[in-house]
Amino acid sequence: MKPKSKRYRIQGKLPKAPPPTLKKFAEEHSDVPKHVLDKLYVESKTRYVDTREKRSRLQLAKERDDLIEKRLVIHQLTFLFVAMRQKMLGAPLSWHRKFLHITDPHVAKTRLEELMLSLLRELHDMPRKAIDPNWLETLEEDDA
Q: CA 99, CA 96: separation in Å to the nearest integer?
């Protein structure tokens, strides 16, 4: 039976300051073997660089006014999911007549596939329909 290897992990939040040098890192974690210490140090350094890059991207997006407020995103997602739920719940009501008096399983399977494909087509266009700011013009074009 193979013995379980010891796992080392440094707990904490994402770093705000650069990680200490490798020598200081080794002093802080003296009970950790060198190869594991090197790996942990590289992970710590990588996390710091990623955090710094994300922070600079966020700052740049703020300056350009490219950020979308979280509240608005949640509202849009709510509208999308409500509309999707209504479509899904309405499907049995609109399709129930097509399943009356079916005795052949192949015909039933074919109609179920049609139902699913039509629902998937509607869901595919849902984001465009639910978020489109020019929905009134689109509706007029579809009627014409």
A: 6
